[in-house]
Amino acid sequence: MSTPGSTPPMAASNEADAAQLDVARAEGAAYRRALEAMRKKSGAVVKQAGQFIVALIQEDAEGVYAREDGHLVWHEVPEDANGHLEIAVADAGDGRFVPGLDITVTVSHDGRQVLNTRLPFLWHPFLHHYGANFVMPGEGNYDVQVHIDPPGFMRHDPVNGKRYGHPVEVSFLAVPFKPGRKPSPHAHPRAKDTPER
Known about the structure:
1 helix, mainly beta, four-stranded antiparallel β-sheet
């Protein structure tokens, strides 16, 4: 079951005039171009639910940088991970990426749950998203249920700020998944684990 879509307000106010709202729409258009590039590369599936545009992407499991003891440290793909699940969320009114969300996904295959987890924010070089590595039992069609809680951040603007007030559910059914693991960047001579400056 998916939450019906609705368009958030986008009207001139004491916080943003028409020209400033156009700047927000231009930022959203850039994010949509990034999402389209990800769709072409990895087959993103996109739906509107509530006041969000929600995209599901399944890729090969991949390593990440994370902070440890004040430094960025590269973490290779966990030994058992063979998939990476991404959820990209944009505002349905202006198209901009929505940060600070609490997103939970439940993934099922052949009627059996294979994943139920909260997805953290992941910085990406061209498409910010929420995501995590996971273990899938094999190639095939998977059902993904996405739950987005109303965010806790404050909203500016008495006209446009009344948005994201309710939980949102999005269902992606029979989505083709394929196991895989991205190679270590250390296999490439240009990728070095140098200390952050």
